[in-house]
Amino acid sequence: MKNEIKAFIAADCDFETADTVIFGAPFDSTTSFRPGTRFGPAAIRSESFGIETYSPYQDKDLCDINVFDSGDLELCFGSPEQALADIGAHTREILSAGKRPVMIGGEHLVTLGAFRAVHEKYPDLYMIHFDAHTDLREDYLGQPLSHACVIRRCHDIIGDGRIWQFGIRSGERYEFEFAKAHNHIYPTTVKGVDFSGVDDAIAALKGKKVYLTIDLDVLDPAYFCGTGTPEAGGATFNQLLEAIIKIGNSLDIAAADINELSPHYDQSGASTAIACKILRELLLAINGDRQ
Prior knowledge:
The chain contains 8 helices and 10 strands. The chain has helices spanning 40-47, 80-96, 110-121, 150-158, 173-182, 197-205, 237-250, 270-286; strands spanning 20-25, 54-55, 60-61, 67-72, 100-105, 125-130, 163-166, 184-186, 209-215, 252-259. α7 links the parallel β9 and β10 (252-259). α3 packs parallel to α4 (150-158) and α7 (237-250) packs parallel to α8 (270-286).
């Protein structure tokens, strides 16, 4: 692999030295409402130089860990399956070198390509899912490969009781019924987002391999409006940050992704800045010593 010239801040070590490898999946062909997430990875890289490498939240610095940025994949926009295959191939290459993949989307469907590859390596895999939406539809307008169906497709792979969902506040009735019957779901109520269930997940998943997927629209649009499907009633930045740090410091994260930033819907740049900070904190949390 070659270095990405416009790498995420401090993600500039050699591939051979890296413990974690970032890559972008700029794909949004199945976006159901407002497109634009294909521009997310490039925006996050560019705007990352507006933040520091040091995290006062964790007293850690990106300069003290080994992260390699392999750049954006060139994905076929006309074929979701081909895009997923290419994402899977890149993820396998990273895993085969003994490194942890961290993907930047793109729409949430890209998770499926990486998840398939990680599950091949770690069959006893679990998932933690932050999102505003259930993403548990069987199909969307007849298409089973859609960002509205991605967690259902992951469930098809790993089965019941292995997916933990947080921040959920939107979906069809049958999706919530499916989640209650098959997943661990902590939906948002009229009292707001409650991430207290993260402690339950950590207790249950100690010693397990975990895939962490973060749809950034889990955040309330008052904080994060740069997304294609904003949903009121979401998490604050601090709530999400605390949950990510807890999970990263406690569990064995085999792979992770953040997705669904559409930077041009927030001309202030605040949403992109938040995405950069979330990625920084995620990288620092999963590369530290587990508690």
